[in-house]
Design goal:
Two copies of one chain form a homodimer.
Chain A (H helix, E strand, L loop, with lengths): L3 E2 L16 E6 L11 E16 L7 H10 L3 E11 L5 H19 L6 E8 L6 H14 L5 H7 L8 E9 L2 E10 L12 E6 L5 H13 L16 E6 L14 H23 L7 E9 L2 H12 L2 H8 L5 H9 L11 E4 L2 E5 L2 E2 L4 H8 L3 E7 L5 E8 L3 H8 L4
Parallel strand pairs in A: 4-5, 8-9, 10-14
Antiparallel strand pairs in A: 1-6, 2-3, 3-4, 3-9, 6-7, 7-8, 10-15, 11-12, 11-14, 12-13
Helix pairs in contact in A: 1-2, 2-3, 5-6, 7-9
């Protein structure tokens, strides 16, 4: 797209992290002690079309259940987020708290409670103290400002080592459009904090049913193709708000050329956010792309790629910089998808280690060089069709065990 | 069973490790250097009924493919095993080698090649040198003896820290019957050596079709309910030979009372072997039983128990002795089985940490005490039915990462 530019986003220059018609703020509400930003608020000055994608877990946290209910309205004005306590497995008390915080936000902003989305991340099973919100929400509303998004990105961090933001600017029919995304966490996370959250704000004008289709499609190509340890959270949530301030004609169909422009920008933004999550995976030292190609169907390719990407034997070999194609082959074999083992090729970047099911040991040194990089692609070609899938993951290191095993001891 | 005794098995007293009508031997064939037993042979003096259970992986090693072919005969006389090279992903050359070694054994023992089962464990993708077998097989045949099984148990070890043997004696209609089992390895294994092998010899007289049903049933209750890291090998094999030397009337139906006697003894033996494999899992410091009960079906219970048992977040928490029930709850939630999160109870041994979906934080200290043990049970009760399943696993430690990540570096 020639009319598009991707800006370098710097957290040290918060003025850049703005989207017309949106405000944000974060405060130290006391959930995580005195000195940590732990509560954030995002506010749209106009009613915004809203789309949401939530955890597929059977065990859904209270805020997820509330957000799914509120999402039916199709428009929203605010997102409230806290870290420290997940408000998951918290029963009727937790549900009442989630509902109560949405009401507090609505009252302070003079909007409807159903226009408020609430998100939590942190320890499962503990209860949030209403007092934190009774103090925090008025402070957040008082501090709302255009350049408050960097603070929100920090307030939603748990074991993240860096805040994660992405921004894309482009034009729709001569109107400048911005998409700003915040994200936190990953599958490979601290005890009880296994949550991935992302909030995406745009001033584009898009009907809410189209927006939902766009977000679902973008999520399937980004957050849903990264895996750190295969664990899925009770709280995973992606929200997309579009407030129409850019004032182009509203996009009402996925088939419109403008929809295609927006979709492409949205997918690049969500993909970059997802890759930042993997790269910041607990203990991760390498970003690994597992590509399965030549499959009979995309579902086959994805099943095999996921099985490889979640194999502890494969992930520890990557950590050890060991070009251990046998583990890749073995993981593919147990994925439950039929294929001819005598047709399989395996590559580390461009270095072929398996040809028609047999190892090319002469290439082992070159393959080991590939694994010494911080970022590489493992390709498995089944030669059984034309479909493919890429899954993004990281290695399994000593630090992963330390972070997750030694946390409370 | 009143007529049954289970003997304490000691490898230092190899005379005990005998089964009437079977002989065994192991040699240093040079596959793993000069000083390691790496090739073994088991011989039945009479034709024995044979049953086999093999890896479900799409990627099957050459010996697995050959054994499945030979198994159709229904009787066998010999098992040849080597460690060091798995003969997997080895193409036509590997298949020719497997077939050639069976022929060499047959020639030396004056039996049919189809009466020989061959098993390999070790590095995937490398080729075995025929010279190792041309020297090794005559030496094995020359050394066959009744008390050679302890040596075979050692010769089949890869990353195992101890050889694994079990023996059961009982009576069928006044005839003393012995079952002797050898096993090696586990899912959590050294690079390219992810193989579980078990050879079970008995002097009972059992028709081969009944024997196959018995072995399948016993495997489902033992080797198939242990998991170390969820990885499945290209070479996994369990073989059961019954030579009838005990001279009781041949068991020809699973419905016979004698079949029940044998089945019970077989299941205790295979279960003990399976638990020895988990306890010797790479880097394992704890043996964990994950029990899911109150499920609508056994399949539901098993799916949830396996998802918990393979969760890296759960396994690292066990290593860290952290009574982190949120991770158990979260893993259950993503298993793909519908349940009411508000009905769930979770226990560490007898200590309840979750009641009707809510945490009992007052019990955390007592639960932590349970996790300090080397062996404990995690129970998840769904209160949705009467079915249950137990899966056995171990924790995920720093040593697992070291063993699997640092191997070739």
């Amino acid at each position: 797209m020639s009319n598009e530019k991707q800006e370098a986003v710097s957290l040290d220059d918060p003025v850049e992290l703005v989207v017309p018609g949106f405000q944000a703020a974060a405060v130290k509400a006391g959930i995580r002690g005195k000195d940590r930003l732990d509560m954030g608020l995002i506010f749209s000055e106009k009613p915004a079309a809203v789309a949401g994608v939530f955890t597929t877990s059977q065990v859904k946290a209270a805020p997820v259940l509330l957000d799914m209910e509120h999402l039916k309205k199709g428009s929203a004005r605010a997102i409230l987020v806290n870290s420290g306590v997940a408000n998951a497995c918290s029963g009727a008390q937790g549900m009442a708290l989630a509902r109560g915080t949405a009401a507090l936000v609505a009252e302070a902003l003079k909007i409807e409670a159903t226009e408020v989305q609430v998100c939590s991340t942190g320890v499962i099973g503990e209860q949030l103290d209403p007092a934190w919100f009774e103090r925090g929400i008025p402070a957040l509303v008082a501090e709302l400002r255009q350049d408050g998004f960097a603070d929100v990105a920090r307030a939603m961090m748990t074991t993240d080592t860096v805040p994660k933001v992405e921004k894309v600017n482009f034009e729709i029919n001569g109107h400048e459009v911005t998409i700003l995304g915040l994200a936190k966490g990953s599958g490979m996370i601290m005890p009880n904090m296994a949550t991935m959250l992302s909030f995406i704000m745009t001033d584009a004008a898009i009907a809410s049913d189209v927006l939902q289709d766009m977000l679902k499609k973008a999520t399937d190509q980004s957050f849903n193709v990264v895996t750190v340890d295969g664990d899925t959270s009770t709280n995973d949530t992606v929200l997309l708000l579009a407030n129409g301030v850019a004032a182009h004609e509203t996009i009402v169909s996925m088939a419109a050329p403008e929809a295609h422009l927006f979709q492409e920008a949205l997918e690049r933004l969500t993909r970059n956010l997802a890759l930042k999550i993997v790269a910041d995976g607990e203990g991760a030292t390498k970003l690994i792309t597992v590509r399965v190609q030549g499959a009979a169907s995309r579902a086959d390719a994805e099943q095999i790629a996921r099985t490889i990407a979640n194999s502890p034997l494969f992930k520890t070999a990557c950590y050890g910089e060991d070009a251990n194609w046998g583990r890749i082959f073995a993981a593919a074999g147990r994925a439950g998808i039929a294929f001819d083992q005598g047709a399989v090729d395996i590559f580390f970047d461009q270095v072929q280690m398996v040809a028609a099911g047999l190892g090319l040991f002469a290439n082992e040194e070159a393959a080991t060089e590939v694994l010494r990089q911080e970022d590489f692609v493992v390709t498995v070609d089944l030669h059984a069709g034309k479909e493919s899938c890429e899954i993004y993951t990281c290695d399994l290191s000593h630090d992963y065990v330390s972070i997750n095993g030694d946390y409370r001891s």
